[in-house]
C-alpha cells in the first residue's frame, strides 16, 4: 500500500484550506507539510499497525502485521489458511439401482389418454414406450423424486433430453 497517495491528499486538503489566507500562508503551509512528511507517514503506519493488531485479535488463528518497505506498507499474513468454500451438503442421494439382473414383466394399467400421451412423448424421444417408461422409472428412482401422477401433470422429460437417433431394426413395440 503506497502511503504517498494519502500524504499528497493531505497536502492538497491543507493547500485548499490555506488559500483563503493568501499566497504567503499557502507557502508557509507547504513548508510545514514538507517538514512533517516523515511524521505523517509514521502516524499512518502506526494507524495501520493498530488496525492490523485489532483484526488479529478477532482472528481464530494466525496474525496480520503491517511492515514498512521503502515508502510503502505491506501487510503480512502469518498462520492464516486461505479461505476455502465449505463443501456443499446435498440431501442423501438414493443408492443406485443394480440393473444387471434379469428382466421381469409387469402389467401396467393406464388410462387411454395417458397411454396416448406417453406414446407421443416416447416417439418424440425416439424411444419405444417401454424404453421411455423404463427411463422414467430409472430417473424417478435415482433422483429420489416422489411422483404423484394424479392431477399433477408431471413432466417426465425435464430437463429435456436430446432425442436419440433411431436404431433401425432395434425398435420393439408391444404392450407394457
UniProtKB/TrEMBL annotation:
InterPro entries in alphabetical order: Arc_rbn_hlx_hlx, Ribbon_hlx_hlx, Uncharacterised_HicB
Region spans: Disordered: 154-176
GO biological process, one term: regulation of DNA-templated transcription
Protein name from the UniProt record: Toxin-antitoxin system HicB family antitoxin
Annotated source species: Tessaracoccus rhinocerotis
Taxonomic lineage: Bacteria, Bacillati, Actinomycetota, Actinomycetes, Propionibacteriales
Amino acid at each position: 500500500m503506497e502511503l504517498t497517495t494519502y500524504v499528497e491528499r493531505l497536502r492538497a486538503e491543507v493547500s485548499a484550506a490555506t488559500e483563503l489566507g493568501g499566497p504567503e500562508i499557502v507557502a508557509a503551509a507547504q513548508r510545514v507539510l514538507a517538514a512533517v512528511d516523515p511524521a505523517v507517514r509514521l502516524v499512518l503506519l502506526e494507524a495501520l499497525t493498530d488496525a492490523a493488531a485489532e483484526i488479529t485479535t478477532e482472528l481464530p488463528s494466525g496474525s496480520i502485521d503491517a511492515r514498512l518497505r521503502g515508502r510503502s506498507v505491506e501487510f503480512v499474513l502469518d498462520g492464516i489458511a486461505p479461505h476455502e468454500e465449505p463443501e456443499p451438503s446435498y440431501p442423501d442421494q438414493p443408492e443406485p439401482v443394480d440393473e444387471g439382473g434379469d428382466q421381469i414383466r409387469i402389467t401396467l394399467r393406464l388410462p387411454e389418454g395417458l397411454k396416448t400421451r406417453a406414446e407421443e412423448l416416447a416417439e418424440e424421444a425416439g424411444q419405444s414406450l417401454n424404453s421411455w417408461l423404463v427411463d422414467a422409472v430409472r430417473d424417478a428412482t435415482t433422483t429420489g423424486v416422489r411422483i404423484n401422477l394424479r392431477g399433477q401433470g408431471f413432466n417426465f422429460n425435464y430437463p429435456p433430453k436430446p432425442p436419440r437417433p433411431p436404431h433401425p431394426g432395434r425398435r420393439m413395440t408391444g404392450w407394457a
